[in-house]
Amino acid sequence: MTVSTDRAIPFAIAFEDVVANIEQVIRGKRAAVELATICLFAQGHLLVEDVPGLGKTTLARSLAASVNAGCHRIQFTPDLLPADITGTNVFNQRTSEFRFRPGPVFAGVVIGDEINRASPKTQSALLEVMEERHVTADGTRYPVPAPFMVIATQNPVDMDGTYALPEAQLDRFLMRLRIGYPTLDAELEILEGRQVGRRVEDLRPVLRAEDVVAHAERTLGVHVAPEMRRYIVRVVAATRSRRDVVRLGASPRGSVALLRAAQVRAASTGRSFVTPDDVGVLAGPLLAHRLVLTPEAELRRVTAEDVVAEVLDTVPSPRRLVAT
Amino acid sequence: MEETPPGAARRAGELAFVAALALVGGSGFTRLFPARDLWVPLPVAAVLPVVLVALLGGPRRGRRPAPAVLTVPAWMVGFVVWTGYTVAAEAGGFLARLELVRAGVIDGWARLLDVAAPAPADPDLLIVALAPTWLAAAIGAELTIRTRAALLPVLPAVVTLVAATALALPVPGDNLPQTGVLVALAAGYLVARMPRSGGYGLVRSSARGLVAILAVLLVGVLAAVTVTGGRLGDPVDPRDHHSTTPVDVTETSPLAALSGWTAHPDDVLFRAAVTGPDPAAPVIFRLAVFDDYDGVSWRSTARFVAAGAAIVPPATAAAQPRQATSVRQDIEVVGLGGNLLPANGLPLSSPPGVRVDPGTGMLRSDLPLAAGSRFEITSVPEPRPEPTQIATLSAGAAAADHNDPDLAVPADPPSILRSMAELATARGRTPFERAALLGTYLSANFVFDPEVPPGHAYGHIDHFLGHTRRGTSEQFATAFVLAARLLGLPARLAVGFSAPASAPAAPGDGAGAADQTRTVHGSDSLAWAEVRFDGVGWLPFFPTPQSAEARGASVAGSNQGETPEQAELIEVALRSVAAGEATPATKPAAPATAGGDGGPDGGHSGPSAGTGAWCKNVVLGVLILVALAGLYLAVALVASGVRRRRLRFAAQRRERVVGAWQCALEALADAGCTVPAAASPVQVVHLGGTFAATAQAGPAVEAALRGLADLVTIALFAPGTALDWDGAAGARAAEEAWRQLDRAERALRGRGPRGQNRPRGLRNPRNPEDLRTRRFRRLRQVRRLRRLLAPGTVWSRLRGPRDHGNPPDSPYGSASSAAGGRPGAEATGAADRDSLASVA
């Protein structure tokens, strides 16, 4: 039996190209790499959160290097100002007029390293551009190029002198990724890779910027059955119903993100339709950072990921046809 | 598999079954109308609507059947027209016919309940039988051509038969033959409705369905036989819940007229030509029966109903063997007024315009009796016990039931009544002896005097017994009845005539001895008492003595009314009393009521009878329990088979695939692998495969589940255009899904002792604790699986030409926390998960 895959197949190839390219540098973390790539094609922003030394920045740089879309990197520090990110109007003495000098956000991939080290004012400067994809300076709008993806990293352990990201900003990230320690074999491979393998600087782009946009639009056509839409809504709504552990559940923006990412994941496996497994794999990275737990739950060291896993265990998988 | 609409021949066969079913259902009414009145219209009513529906609504080639809004009014109008021009044709004009049909359909039921069985062949009553038959045939035919239901079209015929059986309850006989034929036809219909295409599973499910039906029938018949054989109760008679309006007979109360008749002893009331009894013996004509006394007057509770050509005698009389052939009476009314007709015995037929009270046999003409009018009545004599029988007769077995109206005595009866009753019957041992002693005591110690003013209130009785000791037959009979009721003997009062022996050459009568014409005068009128004996019925007692004043043969009411047979019975009873006094040791200490009259061994039979009844109840209870369990089992089997069939032959191919998946999940659960509701098809495959591997069910389970999961994933989640569901590919997919299900079930069944064939609800008596731990184990597996989930081991066939090159086994094994989005899961450990579970 065959399924119509005429639209999905070229995308699956492109997707696999990007993943394979990154995997030349990031070893043994295929799942994380795939999720990051899904985020790229879903045209969302990625928050990588993990302890130092696990390759957060390397992942971000590798992804940026795989796409020929221009990459800027911002090292967030407490004294960073909003204008340092978005750009500002500069007086040109020769022409005697103000000219907008674009900041580092004007790039296809923007890497925000240690984003929680900047002041809230600076962090929120990213808000507008992340959501609306343009910068407003002195009343003039300056759109950022497409594709536009912010990859931010942060360290959850050493919290001294940091400013936790506000809920509004967390919600703008499509997914929050944790890389985790590699296995012993993978770590051994990394050591050997240092000797013979490639560095980020050696990576060559495998996709053009316009290819990324075209593929992203193509994945919009992946079929989502009514049963699946209902399932997604139920999963997201279930995070809001756990009043005992969740103070604030996922928003409808979470439903939209889940649907969009599931479409990309389905297309990446060559499928032209979404299944519950797509949702099952993506729900944790996509929903956990949108939940605000109750203080009691935090005291009991319940994590948002636990809550999402529990929700997935309780929401019944679609097993009946919905009359359309 | 492609399903084509059934062929015309097959459809015709099904419709023929429907017509036959309706005919059998309607034939239950033939017991109510035994005069063959239904033999012609009933088959027409069963066949015509089926033909109508088939012609109007039958599927045209390649099109759906005509809408029901066309066919239903058509057969409704058809019924009205047909009945209007056949059964109701004699009503006259068209509107009158319509009115008759309307009355039959709407009011016929109630009228049928008012009519003594068997019912007369009135058009409005016949419609009551024809309408449900027509309806059953029409609805059955509609359901046959419009639905694929296998048994539903049989239901209207079954309902018709049940209704007919309930209505015909008072008529002797049963509808067992019809029931048997109905069941056979229903089975035949079911077989005719079974889909003809399909493979192994279909044959199996058909066979299972048939076996289940037979099991249900067997259990039902066993239960019915057990219940009716054990006499747990009488069948439900709709007449018990329908009250016939009582006819008020007080305005013409014969008891009030009695004194008038005796005051004119020579007036001729009526003449009766009686064929049957001995011409030399007097014949008793009973006019009215009074059974309700309120301390002032007697009233009758008779309910007169219209009757057909024949009247079914009440059960008490029917239980007694007929002692004589029927008696024919030609009655010519002369001076008898009122509406009530005199009759000897229990009427078997009533003339036109005469209603009958089936309980007492009283007859009432719709019009007041006029001089010269003639009535022909056939009756059976009331049962009379043999003289040898009277010693064993019991009365008032229902004495324990204090609601017996025939034992009711109004409050504060005259004290002399009770003392007289006890004094008179002190020597009697059996109910009959006591009744005989009571009658003899009254006739021996009190004087008949026609001059005494009429009346039978407590005051009259007190005056009669305590002071004057003179009275009329009205007072004698009332005193007897009240005394008998005080003694525990069910009794009532009757008014009638004791027709003297035929007068061969009576001048003026103008009748010869040959025709046994008896002329009844006012002097022959009489009131007497009747006592009810168990198993025999009502026996008359005549307490009124011959007149002490010798006024010749014309002294009114001096006739006791006793026939020689009754006199003999009394004689035997009195002799028995005298003989009993010779051996007083056998006499019971107290004048016990009839309940204690079981005889000298009554004391011994009590406990043994109790033990027997106890054993019988236990056996009965066990039988009922077994029958209920069997019924449940059979119903569960049938329901499971029906559901499976519904899933398998759902209208849409996608639904069939999804149905197969549901059955597979249930099969897994039956085998002991409960799949969480949250598990996706891929996860179910993994769980089932793991389970099958640990349970040595072989790889076949996982392979079959995987194939099925592929199909159900496409059916549930892929766009409708992914597969040509309406075409051959869809049919193949649905067929393939059920084939894979069969394969999985076979593999699971071969695995262990847990029965796959047990219906749901009977399976796995589960320990809740066990269930919970099992559920958590599965959930943990699902969670792990979600983390380990490869991008499509199952999807290898669905993927594009290029594989991702993942390692086949758990490519995410090294990346569990990231893929599952569960950072720190290893760090936080199981304790946190447990705490979450406890929070949940």
Walk me through this protein's architecture:
The complex is a heterodimer of chains A (324) and B (840). Chain A has two domains: 1-78 and 112-118 and 150-219, Rossmann fold (3-Layer(aba) Sandwich); 222-317, Helicase, Ruva Protein, domain 3 (Orthogonal Bundle). Chain A contains 13 helices and 13 strands. With 324 residues, chain A is of the alpha/beta class. Chain A is globular, with a radius of gyration of 20 Å. Chain A has a five-stranded parallel β-sheet with strand order 3-6-9-1-10. In chain A, strands 2-11 form a two-stranded parallel ribbon. Chain B has three domains: 8-197, no CATH class; 250-596, no CATH class; 653-800, no CATH class. Chain B has helices at 8-27, 41-57, 68-85, 94-114, 123-146, 155-167, 176-193, 200-229, 254-263, 315-319, 415-425, 431-445, 458-468, 473-486, 564-582, 602-648, 653-671, 681-694, 700-717, 728-749, 768-788, 816-820, 825-839; strands at residues 268-275, 283-290, 292-293, 298-299, 327-333, 340-341, 346-349, 354-356, 363-365, 374-380, 447-448, 470-471, 491-499, 517-521, 525-533, 537-541. In chain B, a hairpin with a 6-residue loop joins strand 8 (354-356) and strand 9 (363-365). In chain B, helix 4 packs across helix 5 and helix 8 (200-229) packs antiparallel against helix 16. The model of chain B is unreliable at 1-5, 315-323, 505-514, 550-559, 584-609, 752-772 and 789-840 (pLDDT under 50). The interface between A and B is large, with 73 and 66 residues.
